[in-house]
Amino acid sequence: MEHDIPPAPNTWTEPAVARDRTYDFSIAVIDLHTLASTAEIRRDATQTTVVALAEQGYMATSPISPTLAISFNTLELFRRIRARKASMSVEAFAKVICDYYAIPYRRRYRTALSDAYDVYLTMLRGIDARVSASLKRDRPDWRVQNSCPACCYVVSALGLTA
Asked: 120 — phi, psi (to 5°)?
């Protein structure tokens, strides 16, 4: 059976399309997974700096003209550490980052981490709210209507009654 699927481009023989690099930029980054200190960020003419950073896995530490970006992986690591050990402070985590990067601790790193972490948590809450709304789980009584206490509901499929 023949399909009308166009052939895939051959990357070995076809020339690559030149991309406009006018808006690309380099920025200082914090990423505990790679320990990279800078990143080359690709950006189109219509993109903001913050969106371009987010598309490549980084959270800007300020909304306009950021000079530092923190990877989403690093922020997620901090979130998980805080979920297990709530007393882990932002300052302590910033000092760990400074130790890994072998740089002296400065308060600006704590402030940048704190600001980025707050925005990251706000984004996660927004995503959770949108998912709940899509799944129709955003009503105040959703848990009550969809719970199954052992003594309240009849399970008719098994022929059992409570």
From this structure: -60, -45
| Interval 40-63 mean pLDDT | 93
CA dist., res. 139 & res. 151, Å (int) = 24
pLDDT computed for residue 2 by the predictor: 54
pTM higher than the cut 0.85: no
Among 59, 50, 57, smallest CA distance to 112 is for 59
Strand 25-30 relative to strand 68-71, pairing: parallel
Provide the residue type at 98 as one letter. C
3-state percent helix, strand, coil for the chain, nearest multiple of 5:
40, 10, 50
Which element (helix H / strand E) includes 68? strand 68-71
Residue owning tokens 């709940």: 132
Return phi, psi of residue 41, to 5°.
Answer: -105, 125
pLDDT of 11 strictly over 80: no
* Averaged pLDDT of the chain: 85
Measure Cα distances from 61 to 39, 117, 118 in Å. Answer: 15, 9, 10
Q: Is the pLDDT of residue 86 over 90?
A: yes
